[in-house]
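In the lab's daily routine, each protein ends up as an entry in a very long ledger. A line of letters takes care of the sequence, but it says nothing directly about the fold. The fold becomes a row of whole numbers, each drawn from a learned catalogue of backbone shapes. The protein below has been through that process, and both of its lines are reproduced in full:
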Amino acid sequence: MSISAGDALPGATLTKMGPDGPEQVDLAKITKGRKVAIFAVPGAYTPTCTMAHLPSFIRTKAQFDEKGVDEIVCISVNDPFVLNAWGEETGAHDAGITILGDAESAFTTAIGMDFTAPPAGLIARSKRYAMLVEDNVVKVLHVEDSPGTCEATAGEALLAEL
């Protein structure tokens, strides 16, 4: 069953690239007592993720800040090495977007957002979604019907709900 508005996020350990290599990140520590926008992409460097979804949060970052959002987190079923390079190349790191890897798709599967599309080479990936989480509880959730679409999950669409 997929996560819904009103549900608490399950415990999850994700990864990011730190100064000395990959680091474990407890998602609950990021969301506890905070307002966090979380969006997920099917994969770093994929066309819609790179040209539409991530840029929509980069360009709206200041507006999220003004609305009291403490952090914007992007989650992808990729390793931290790929995500670090993607964050550098897209300007996401410079914009203040946190990019976390769910390499084993454990969190993605736990919230029911996993999908597989073998013809595209996407195995155990994340559906495209965006959510607003307050104190670890999902307040708003938008999910795209197609992984190649970025409308309901764009930064502007989530921002309109705040």
Observations:
- The chain has six helices and nine strands.
- The longest strand covers residues 35-41.
- The radius of gyration is 14 Å.
